[in-house]
Amino acid sequence: MQITVRETFGKWLQGLDGLFRRKGEEAGREISSKERPEPRGDAEEALWQAMGWNEPQGRDALRMAADGAGEVLGE
């Protein structure tokens, strides 16, 4: 019984490795395909800081990675 569980669990873990790798590649392609804004000049940076503005809202790379991991784990 223990050997069967250990072998089955090992195969399951190996399957997770493949799923995480594919999701990682998928997220990498999505992240690299995003248009990046032009860098702000010193004057524009000063204006943003003075106005207390944040970066534009959007799905960032960390959120994409977390979403991919959640899909693999069944969330």
Describe this structure in words.
Helix content is 73%, strand content 0%. It has 75 residues and is mostly helical. It has a domain at 1-29 and 60-75. Helix 1 runs antiparallel to helix 3.
| Overall spatial form | elongated
Order of helices and strands: HHH
Q: In whole angstroms, how far apart are the ends?
A: 30 Å
Q: Mean pLDDT, rounded to whole units?
A: 78
Low-confidence stretches: none
Class from secondary-structure proportions = mainly alpha
| Distinct helical segment count | 3
Computed over alpha carbons, the radius of gyration is 20 Å
Largest sheet: none
Name the features.
single chain; 75 residues; mainly alpha; 73% helix; elongated
